Amino acid sequence: MPFVLGLNHRSAPIELRERLAIASHELAGLLQRLREDSKSDELVCLSTCNRTEIYVEARNRVGSKDAITRALQHQAGAAALSEHLYYHESEEAVRHLFSVASGLDSMVQGEHEILAQVKQAYQAAQQGGFTGKLLNVLFQRSLYVGKRVRTETGLGEGASSVGSIAVGMAERIFGSLADRSVMILGAGEMAEVTARHLMAQKAKSLLVANRTFERACRLAEAFGGTAMHFEEGLRQMAEVDIVICSTAAPHTVITPAHVRGIMAERKGRSLFLIDIAMPRDVDPAVNNIENVYLYNIDDLQQIVNENQAKRAREAALAQKIVQDETREFTRWLRTHRAGLHQGLRHNPPSVPATE
Amino acid sequence: MLTKAVPSKWLYLHIPMLCLSYLMLLAAAAVGLLFIIQERRIKHHQSVAVTSRMPSLDMMEFFIYRMILWSFPLLTLGILLGTHWAYVTRGRFWEWDSTETFSLVTWAIYAIYLALRWGIGWRGRRSTYLALAGFGIILITLVALFFFSPIHTMGNMKL
After folding, report:
1. pLDDT greater than 60 at residue B5
2. Within an 8 Å CB–CB cutoff, is residue B123 touching chain A?
3. Which of A5, A212, A243, A278 has the most Cβ atoms closer than 10 angstroms to its Cβ?
4. Would you kindly state where each structural domain of chain A is located, as residue ranges?
């Protein structure tokens, strides 16, 4: 039965993870030392920026665990390590690896990078001759589970902040934002956050219009945009594609009549209005104008909530896959454990396929 | 039926030209349906608008426009060839049979679409509805062509 010893972004602070991060060229040396010290039969070391984990198959599990802990402590130097280490064995170790490979254990749940990292870690160990029957099957199986979760669930899909939803909608309307210009009308704090998201997509230009011109200048400078007076901004709205409204005005500043005038000038090109002011800046009736898409903070928050619910559902689905695969793998393992340790040649019919 | 006199083979281009233009207009209509669906989702603040992998509204709109733009000369030329064919075989350019009438309506709808788009930049949901209506008329034209038109007797046509 395999076990895993390691630490990750939840169990250990970054200073400690840095010390235990193992570069790919050091990997073979480390595995070699670990094998000699711990008398383990099979070893794989998975080291990414968020985790360092050693997967082990050993006849003397306790001795092997102690030896590896000592080796890791050596690597960590004076820092306290033991409280940050986790240890799983048998079925729990299998489940852990499957969770890691499917991205359930990642800092950003559902990210795809980890599957490739698991693959590299396995290949490095396998090429060095550090793996045997058990870890070979286990790691190949984990790659399969990771792929299964990726194709069968929407784990990690769906943006989860108001800013990223705003960007997503903008892209659904305009496609690439590279030749689109953005205007911030009233430079509130939320406007800055949303603008940062949009400018991260390399929007062409940014205009900042504010009643206090100094504040407009500051914000424009931060994003490499152009500052202007508030009234000037209202006049220039026809020139931009996305307007983020965030004024402190106590009443609506953008009326349907104003937007109709703008749309006539724009010759039907779509206009995306993001109203994150409280109270609202844009008359809700503006959304009824053709080719105008108005989102207020509640509309965006609503989508964020729906996405979060969806994420939770997909995570549950992924966990179920991991659970099922873990059970199936351990069942297979129990049936063939004797064979593994005796080193018998056999070709069990129920070996989990890798593809 | 008066099908004996077919003087010039290039008159046959009447048929493939219209077929090709109808195919492009079919593509425009299919994307038009997607556009209507996605535009509705975005307008109504539905989260599925973001999670779905549909192309952007702008891209779909431009595709529809381009399809109509390219098919329009073919449509025009195809109909003109038809009138010439009619003149050669029956001595009259236009007889207002059902296929001819609906073709003219189709042509008028897409002409209006293009004129408004060029003139006032008319685009979006309503212009897409117009493009869909145009294709609806094409479908009626084809029904008329196969079942009701005395001149366009596809059923017993011998090429």
Report:
1. no
2. yes
3. A243
4. 2-152, 162-303
**Residues 6+ positions from A298 with CB-CB distance below 8 Å:** none
Touching check for A303 and chain B: CB below 8 Å?
yes
Beta carbons of B38 and A295 less than 8 Å apart: no
On whether any CB of chain A is under 8 Å from the CB of B29, the answer is: no
Search chain B and give the residue with CA nearest A309: B47
Q: Give A268's contacts in chain B (Cβ within 8 Å).
A: 120-124
Residue B80 lies in a domain: yes
pLDDT value at A348 more than 80: no
> Is the per-residue pLDDT at B35 higher than 90?
yes
Asked if A299's CB is within 8 angstroms of B124's CB, the reply is no
Residue ranges making up the domain that contains B53: 21-148
Q: State yes or no: is A49 an active-site residue.
A: yes
pLDDT tens, position by position, A116-131 = 999 999 999 999 999 9
What is the arrangement of strands in the sheet containing A2-8, beginning at the earlier edge strand? A42-48, A51-57, A2-8, A86-89
A266 interfaces chain B, CB cutoff of 8 Å: yes
Write out chain B residues lying below 8 Å of A310, CB-based.
47, 51
What is the structure's pLDDT at A308? 85
Residue A191 is predicted with a pLDDT of 84
Number of domains forming the structure of chain B: 1
Q: Is the CB of B38 inside 8 Å of chain A's CB atoms?
A: yes
Mean pLDDT, chain A, rounded, equals 88
**Chain A residues lying within 8 Å of B126, measured CB to CB:** 290
Confidence of residue A3 (pLDDT cuts 50, 70, 90): very high
Looking at CA atoms only, how far is residue A133 from chain B in angstroms?
42
Residue A2's nearest CA partner among A95, A103, A105 is: A95
CB contact under 8 A, B57 and A270: yes
The residue of chain B nearest to residue A297, with distances taken between CA atoms, is B45
Complex-level ipTM: 0.85
Arch. (CATH architecture) of A162-303: 3-Layer(aba) Sandwich (3.40)
Long-range CB pairs of A17-22, under 8 A, 24+ apart, other chains included = A17/A49, A17/A50, A17/A51, A17/A52, A19/A75, A19/A76, A19/A77, A19/A79, A20/A47, A20/A52, A20/A72, A20/A75, A20/A76, A21/A47, A21/A48, A21/A49, A21/A52, A22/A47, A22/A52
